[in-house]
Design a protein that fits this description.
It comes from Eleginops maclovinus (Patagonian blennie). This protein is of the alpha/beta class. It has helices at about 5-30, 75-85, 95-100, 110-115, 120-125, 135-150, 155-170, 170-185, 200-215, 215-234; strands at about 35-40, 45-55, 60-70, 100-105, 130-135. The relative contact order is 0.08.
Length: about 230
């Protein structure tokens, strides 16, 4: 008798195989393809690379998820190897697949865009010198916004405040004090989070929202801490 978990795995494998064959059929008809990839980490903090294929057939554009592949190392060679593993479609010879690749899309990180040691450099060296690098527009807009906001003094003050709150409440004693303040003010526990990071706009927005929602509890706790400091000084 087959175990339920095994049946579930078999079902998923069958669906994956049918989907893969459908993608292969479309890729066979495409003259050119562009590879798009981005890095991520799973719950075990293992580096993963998510890969998509962009192409057009008879004037109709397609964007297909190709795979989530583990990187041995999060460097250019590791990402390149993960991409090559993902684009290895059994029904299409490797040489034919390589001839179709005309573009690579990724974020603006040096590991992708480096002219000497980036992923695009490896592709141009090992596949074709004519492959174009397309930087993610969303990432570029985000970086432009970040640079523009550095000129706003009010934003810098808020940014410093959010960062200080995050670091303060990473201290167990202060976190316990804030937890008690949440209970006193009957506010759901909404902890200060790290500002900035790889998704700069999203992370900053979340940090600001959390601070505003927990504002009364944060002010209460900080006033208590300040009062204790004054008493200690005297």
């Amino acid at each position: 008798m087959v175990a339920p978990n095994q049946k579930s795995r078999d079902r998923r494998s069958s669906i994956a195989e049918i989907t893969r064959l459908a993608i292969e059929d479309k890729v066979k008809s495409a003259k050119f393809i562009t590879i798009m990839s981005d890095g991520s980490t799973d719950v075990s903090a293992t580096e993963q690379e998510i890969i998509y294929l962009h192409f057009a057939v008879d004037g109709k554009t397609h964007c297909n998820f190709l795979g989530l592949v583990q990187c041995d190392k999060p460097d250019a060679n590791g990402i390149y190897d993960a991409i090559m593993q993902a684009v290895k479609l059994p029904g299409i010879p490797k040489e034919e697949m390589m001839k179709k690749i005309v573009g690579f899309a990724g974020d603006g990180a040096a590991v992708n865009t480096g002219k000497k040691a980036g992923v695009i450099a490896l592709m141009r060296e090992r596949i074709s010198g004519d492959i174009l690098m397309v930087q993610c527009m969303a990432h570029r807009v985000e970086l432009a916004f970040k640079e523009a906001m550095k000129q706003a003094s009010l934003f810098i003050k808020v940014y410093v405040l959010l960062d200080a709150l995050y670091k303060l409440y990473r201290i167990p004693k202060q976190a316990a004090g804030l937890k008690a303040a949440f209970s006193t003010t009957n506010i759901s526990k909404i902890w200060p989070v790290r500002v900035g990071g790889t998704r700069w706009v999203s992370h900053t927005h979340t940090a600001l929202q959390n601070m505003l929602r927990g504002y009364r509890a944060i002010v209460l706790h900080l006033s208590q801490v300040r009062h204790l400091i004054i008493i200690t000084c005297y």
